[in-house]
Amino acid sequence: MVALLVAMGEIVYAMVRRDISRSSLGLIGLALVIFNLIAMEVVVIGRADHFRALPGELAAPRYFFHSTLFWTGVLLVALQHAESIRWARWPVYLVVFVGSILAFPSHYEGGLNCRWARRLAQAGATSLVNGVRDDQQIRILAPAAGIHWVYRVAEQLRQRRLDMFAEGVQDWIGLNESNLFNGRHKPERLRGHCRIDTIVSCENGKPAARVVGVAWIDGKAAPKTLVIVDPAGVICGVACSSAVAPFTDRIFYLNKFARNMGFLGYIRGYDPKLQYAIRSAEGETLSDEKIVLPPVTSLPSP
Known about the structure:
The protein is α+β, with helices and mostly antiparallel strands and 302 residues long. It contains nine helices and ten strands.
């Protein structure tokens, strides 16, 4: 809040003096700050209903400062002023250096939490793409509005082919694998294992199975999208995997995440008497190899 007030004061002061053209550094800094103030206002107005439900969220840092560009703008303005005051130059550099070190732990923790939240949100989106009512997975998508609101909005997104429905993966369900991608297959050296995690229900009330597992292509990369087929070759569900690039995990997350965090998918109209299999669907091509889903003797429940 203090930084926000200081930035607004700098903007007004510069406009009154009309000297922002004297320093390109200060001009860039003020432009970044103004951009973030406008972005913050748009976010607050656009999420007015959310803030009415959770007023405390209005003070969340992610709404005050849209991105790190805000702090970059404040830093550039401070450096521009420090250039004209010789004794202030090194104190500004020192404050920036020490502030970065002190802020790193909280930013690192926030990055880990956001990564896990993204993984959980992806799992919830996968359930909606499959047309499955998995309340446990979608709860994270709208903790304030409630589960029924998520299902209602998801139906509108499906009709307009927006968000998780934009890629059209939901259209694969019900097709025969020979009709998907014009029947293109190729060796992928797909390996992995999977299991039935629990039984949920489809939108039409029929049973559905939540499938979890781990898959590799060529022993290294994790396939982003997979399809689940029945013995007749009909696609009865899709699955999405979560993976972190080795460089990203090493530099940004300090090897806190597994390189392959597994996949989650669903089988619509699940029949425990049938044996299902999973193929990767990368590059508009299905893998020749498949991961066989072991049959279950007793159905797990939520």
